[in-house]
Design a protein that fits this description.
- By secondary structure, the chain is mainly alpha-helical.
- The protein folds into 2 domains: about 60 residues, Orthogonal Bundle (Tetracycline Repressor, domain 2), CATH 1.10.357.10; about 120 residues, no CATH class.
- The protein is about 70% helix and about 0% strand.
- The radius of gyration is 19 Å and the shape is elongated.
- The termini are far apart.
Length: about 190
């Protein structure tokens, strides 16, 4: 692809993603059609299909873009102890979504995040558990459980400021305790 075509493709994809954000502010993803998404992005349907298969594909691309600077889990759980790595913890991604709020509120957000951002087998906790001897299925289940729990807590808590910091610190200790227990149990066979 030539440099000009790459720029055009990027501009078109960005326009479609922005159109999806605008439409998600008004309705659920399941109710958004290719026609209205194309109209909102000011592209033809055939142009839309050159870049995406359906609105769900656009949604997944938006999630991937939005979540691209999310920290690995082990860095996240250390944030409440004063560790300040680059990137955002998952709970911040959920709680401070801004214009991406409608994206985060979609039922499919967590699955899209796990599948596009890291994938269960790319999660740093997955590697830790696998290296300790857990099967792929066991490690994936624990990673899914951990992410779902963090997502539910971040999405449901209305606490702010210091209160949220305290809640997060307790959740982080719980996660670290669970990881330590899993590793110890595997070592003790």
């Amino acid at each position: 692809m030539t440099k000009g075509k790459v720029k055009y493709a990027t501009r078109t994809e960005d326009a479609v993603k922005q159109a999806l954000l605008a439409l998600l502010a008004k309705k659920q993803l399941a109710d958004i059609t290719v026609s209205e998404l194309s109209r909102e992005a000011h592209v033809s349907r055939s142009t839309f299909y050159e870049h995406f298969g359906n609105p769900a594909d656009v949604y997944d691309a938006v999630v991937h873009d939005y979540a691209s600077d999310t920290l690995p889990l082990m860095s996240q759980v250390m944030c409440s102890d004063g560790f300040k790595p680059k990137g955002r913890p998952f709970c911040s991604l959920v709680r401070e979504a801004g214009v991406y709020g409608p994206v985060v509120r979609e039922d499919r957000f967590l699955d899209a995040f796990m599948n596009k951002r890291e994938g269960r087998d790319q999660h740093d906790l997955f590697a830790l558990l696998s290296n300790a001897g857990y099967t792929k299925a066991q490690a994936e289940a624990i990673c899914s459980f951990q992410m779902a729990g963090c997502f539910a807590a971040a999405r449901s808590s209305t606490a702010g400021g210091e209160e949220w910091a305290q809640i997060r610190a307790v959740i982080d200790r719980f996660i670290l305790g669970g990881i330590a227990a899993c590793l110890a149990a595997q070592q003790n066979g």
